[in-house]
Amino acid sequence: GAGVSQSPSNKVTEKGKDVELRCDPISGHTALYWYRQSLGQGLEFLIYFQGNSAPDKSGLPSDRFSAERTGGSVSTLTIQRTQQEDSAVYLCASSYTDEQFFGPGTRLTVL
Amino acid sequence: GDSVTQMEGPVTLSEEAFLTINCTYTATGYPSLFWYVQYPGEGLQLLLKATKADDKGSNKGFEATYRKETTSFHLEKGSVQVSDSAVYFCALSRYNFNKFYFGSGTKLNVKP
Question: Which tens digit of pLDDT belongs to each residue from A13-35?
Answer without folding.
Answer: 999 999 999 999 999 998 999 99
